[in-house]
Amino acid sequence: MLAAPPFNLLANLNRVDEAIDSNADIASQITATAVESFGLQSSWTDWYNTATASDLDKARSTIRQFYRDWSAEGADERRAGYESILKVIDDSFSNVNDKSEVKVLVPGAGLGRMVFEVCKAGYTVEGNEISYHQLLASNWVLNHTQLNQRFDLHPFALDFTNVVSREHQLKAVKIPDVHPATMLSAIDATGGERMSMTASDFLLLYGDEEHVEIFDAVATVFFIDTAPNVIRYIETVRNCLKGGGIWANHGPLLWHFADRGPADPDENAKPSEKEEKTGIEAPGSFEVTEEELLLLVEKMGFEVTMHEIRDDGKGYIQNPNSMLQHMYRTSHWVAKKKS
Length: 339
Hints:
alpha/beta, two-stranded antiparallel ribbon, about 35% helix
């Protein structure tokens, strides 16, 4: 019965397969670009069937992230966070004649859309990301795509619950919605030179002596709750931000490490072989309320100059047609580093 009209279950499963193939084409483009960019000698086809369950989960998440960051349909989600941060930066440096002299850091840069938007606004911006899956994807979309709306992405193809219609599940969006290189070159010849990305643990890289007070602004969007120990995040921002510089934040407090238990020790390892975890992998985590977070920020060398809970929040990679809608009330605040 389900195989026959009007259900056409087998035909619909074939359509799901086609959507997966379309997403796989994007993944293959990213992988091929990564192999070339990093000068790897072996054929990337040698990596077939070697991914772990964690790798697959991160890859699926990265592909879906293109919906939020690089499709026209994801504009509402971007607008809720990115535009408010850009307004803070513009207002804070409105008296600067040459915006390129303002250096902005974007930790947790993901697929690079916020980095791109800050650069497009005229500032010098550095993104930071620890996930190699997202770094490879951002490198592809920012530096190697040839046209806008070149690829069909099916962000919700694997969602089989709370679906109203197969058309909603299998809807395709075009990525990227804009061609980054074309747009930046149209603004000024140095657009690409003002944008960079680092691949490292935020705590380890920007907490060192080489990065003391080098940024005029730090922009954190859906990032601060990735901290197992938020005090370390605050210390790192304080270290790399100039005196009088601004820290603009927007996002929820999901606390990604809330369920992380103590690491299982390797009982067979010799003391000299036990590697001490550092940075974001350091043991221990705790969660604070938003009130407590802002008190910490002020206690650790900042003045909170603006704060609000935004009720106009959107979801995060949310299918607008799903029967289940997750919406965030986001914390939006600005803190100035005391000189």
